[in-house]
Amino acid sequence: xxxxxxxxxxxxxxxxxxxxxxxxxxxxxxxxxxxxxxxxxxxxxxxxxxxxxxxxxxxxxxxxxxxxxxxxxxxxxxxxxxxxxxxxxxxxxxxxxxxxxxxxxxxxxxxxxxxxxxxxxxxxxxxxxxxxxxxxxxxxxxxxxxxxxxxxxxxxxxxxxxxxxxxxxxxxxxxxxxxxxxxxxxxxxxxxxxxxxxxxxxxxxxxxxxxxxxxxxxxxxxxxxxxxxxxxxxxxxxxxxxxxxxxxxxxxxxxxxxxxxxxxxxxxxxxxxxxxx
Amino acid sequence: xxxxxxxxxxxxxxxxxxxxxxxxxxxxxxxxxxxxxxxxxxxxxxxxxxxxxxxxxxxxxxxxxxxxxxxxxxxxxxxxxxxxxxxxxxxxxxxxxxxxxxxxxxxxxxxxxxxxxxxxxxxxxxxxxxxxxxxxxxxxxxxxxxxxxxxxxxxxxxxxxxxxxxxxxxxxxxxxxxxxxxxxxxxxxxxxxxxxxxxxxxxxxxxxxxxxxxxxxxxxxxxxxxxxxxxxxxxxxxxxxxxxxxxxxxxxxxxxxxxxxxxxxxxxxxxxxxxxxxxxxxxxxxxxxxxxxxxxxxxxxxxxxxxxxxxxxxxxxxxxxxxxxxxxxxxxxxxxxxxxxxxxxxxxxxxxxxxxxxxxxx
Lengths: 277, 362
Ligand SMILES: Nc1ncnc2c1ncn2[C@@H]1O[C@H](COP(=O)(O)OP(=O)(O)OP(=O)(O)O)[C@@H](O)[C@H]1O
Ligand SMILES: [Mg+2]
Fold this sequence. Notes:
heterodimer; A: alpha/beta; Rossmann fold; 2 domains; 6-stranded mixed beta sheet; 4-stranded antiparallel beta sheet; 9 helices; globular; B: mainly alpha; ABC transporter involved in vitamin B12 uptake, BtuC; two-stranded antiparallel ribbon; binds adenosine-5'-triphosphate; binds magnesium ion
């Protein structure tokens, strides 16, 4: 009950429609005394599917947390539509930016539908825990992720792949411009990984901006249309996958010697590690 | 766009968790609150049972005040015996029992929800023991200078403050809160025993009943304290409820959904402590009601989440039932209510632990 309650408006400023935007400007972020991101600036390109890649512990999760303001920067700002996140009410941020954490807590005894319904929280208040768009947003998200038939299943009793789709349905029901997914494909078998990546593309095709932390460079190159490569809390490179993913970069960032060839299906860069000499 | 659909067909279409189905309680367009259908039925049954037991407690025995007498009293036409029983003897006692039960049930449900721990309760984190130590010190060391209930509330406050301070993370880490709370409770109990041991024996006698929690010789003043506290604290809890529902998703996701996890947890714990403190002030540290009421509520409603209303009502039912037994069951005649709740609650706690272990070893 303490932050200034300004309500930035998206939409028209002086009659012209301003595009939504989300960017970090010279943010320094850390935990306790440990600084993870230092002086990092990054704009998330609108309407794209951005893959964030980088070695373990380089700060990918920290970056997406900072964009969703579940973690506050020590210095610098994240700007949503040009307005610092600190000046937005938490619920207004949640109406624009959704985050699925890397390992969310699985609530006990909650059905898929009621999980998805929680995505509507940003639109509710203590007295008004329902708004006219709820039903449709929930149904559409469940259909898009293929969990409609699982509506009354308990989340704890689903397989990993089903559960992951239920989580994604929840963040879709939030109906945000920006959808941030922290490692949505980890712990899934290959077929389910591809399912989720297709889903990310579908979400982008519906006009949202998708940012997913991925570990598989080949998948990032093939399914995303923009990659951000991180190394030790810095952005090492960003741009089109075919421009960014090179043998030099992989050696630099992952300390891995490799050869890059074209993906036989899509022609995107494919990383093939060199044999041990 | 239809890739994911194929693998989802193995589902059963029959809902098994009936408690998770919500209906909307809508009053005009500005107020809409989801109410579990089953919770509504269960809550009503528990409320009716509590009411019935309260009336039975009033009506039983030689001094009994039947429903007819109550109606007379409401019209101001009751005789002096009935008036005396209602205003001095059984009336305040029943009102305190219901009020304390509601406060403890709600307090426990708040605690368990924000600590995400089925054993998280004001008792476990040292509130009751702290209250006991406070009451003991005010009674035995500074004899009468400070009223015992005030000492109890101060003791509870100190215990919680120590827990908050020694975890290093405030109330943010549920596991630390509980472990620290157990330590603080042990120290508070040791302090109580030390003070009792060195103080005069005779003044320790009346204190003994207070330390286990008692409803004997309650006054209308005490009934007023608990009910006024409830009338302030319950609306405050109401403001938090919709955010509490997100707490079982973990802090990060609750925060990402605009639920302000840290803020919500802090306020929920502050309110839970105040509710328990109000209960301690009028009835002493009554054991296990705050711990067991939310569990029973969850079992009977079969709904996930905090179940605040049903937990509060369950707390009231436990208190009224314990008080009924304490007053009218010959074997238990004159026994402080706290001993009965501790006996029954202790057995239930054991049962819970066994269940948790079973679940963990699957
Ligand atoms: N909650 C936390 N508290 C303290 N330190 C943390 C926390 N989360 C991450 N860190 C530290 O911050 C650094 C970056 O972590 P982060 O989770 O952002 O990395 P990551 O790139 O997502 O790694 P991974 O690929 O393993 O998920 C690590 O050194 C980690 O130890
Ligand atoms: Mg990570």
